[in-house]
Amino acid sequence: MCVFTNSLFSSSKVIKIKGMISEAPLQQLHDPLFEEHEVKLWVKREDMLHPHISGNKWRKLKYNLQEAKQQGKATLLTFGGAYSNHIAAVAAAGKEFGFTTIGMIRGEEHLPLNPTLDFATSCGMDLHYVDREKYRQKQELTFLQHLAEQFNHPYIIPEGGTNVLAVKGCTEIVQDINIDYNYLCCTSGTGGTIAGIIAGLEGQKQVIGFPALKGGEFLKEEIAQLVQAYNGGSYSNWQLITDYHFGGYAKVKPELLEFMHNFQKHYQVPLEPVYTGKMMFGIYDLIRKGFFPSGSRVVAVHTGGLQGNAGFKERLGVVV
Ligand SMILES: *Cc1c(COP(=O)(O)O)cnc(C)c1O
């Protein structure tokens, strides 16, 4: 259920909302494997920032919400799949900050609504279904103009929330890390989050991205462009590791679920199988293979997304 008791929005630089913690904690993980390879690992718990506007989705929305307010917009319109963490976050943020929200959902309506869309609706989001062919036009100007007219000129946020203001918000993920480290790991969908991390680090440290999609190489160009669009910079201290997609976006394999199960039991850190589960699996595997030189200090960003687990459970009968 979407329950908020208070709606606070100030146009000042500091945006605070009830239930939000100001800094995502860093949690060190301990494992004999790490000792063997002389590697230290921390998780940056962005998932703990807020119960509903979680992880990187809050970072990506923050300056967009501010911009929408400044433009005097009353409505946010965005796009996503039926299990989208971004859709859930926009619905919750709209409720929190006093915007009406419209979700353009890829595919057909299925009733009863899945947990993600049920949550979005309970926050007041108005859902519209777009067939897959039409949905592909979501970035085309004529399609967006048409939507703008149809819905009385809302503030339009792209799929996954990724734009230059989202990159700006994600630079704050690294500003918040107050320990010494050399590697920062992050999972990628559209690449907006890692673009912000790369821009925020300004060439320092090594950034490793784990695409959640199969064939994630295409993201390289997009990430570089996002960084460029944000601060004009071009950096070489980052790479994508494309081996841990487990068959593709939102696809799972038994060894992934087993890893997640053990991880959660051991650390009490919840993961989800679309993004953070695959990244953590990848990090463990890389440590095992000696990828990180001895003495490495690695920070893994937990980007949240835990709302998606309810949908997974429902679809696959998989408890994650
Ligand atoms: C949306 C999402 C991502 C992907 O972020 P991008 O900025 O699109 O790369 C990663 N992790 C989680 C948990 C997400 O919900």
Bound molecules: pyridoxal-5'-phosphate
What is the CATH T-level topology of the largest domain?
A: Rossmann fold
Taking all Cα atoms into account, the compactness measure Rg is 19 Å
DSSP E strands, number: 10
The number of domains is 2
Features:
320 residues, alpha/beta, Rossmann fold, 2 domains, six-stranded mixed sheet, 16% strand, globular, disordered N terminus, binds pyridoxal-5'-phosphate
Quick rundown:
The protein is of the alpha/beta class and 320 residues long. Helices cover 40% and strands 16% of the residues. A six-stranded mixed β-sheet has the order 1-2-10-7-8-9.
Descriptive account of the structure:
- This protein has 320 residues and is of the alpha/beta class.
- Helices cover 40% and strands 16% of the residues.
- The chain has 12 helices and 10 strands.
- A 6-stranded mixed β-sheet has the order 1-2-10-7-8-9. It has a 4-stranded parallel β-sheet with strand order 5-4-3-6.
- Helix 7 (164-175) packs across helix 8 and helix 10 crosses helix 11 (276-288).
- The protein is globular and about 60 Å long.
- It starts with 25 loop residues before the first strand and ends with a helix.
- The chain binds pyridoxal-5'-phosphate (PLP).
- Pyridoxal-5'-phosphate (PLP) is lined by residues 55-57, 85-86, 160, 162, 187-193, 275-276, 303-305.
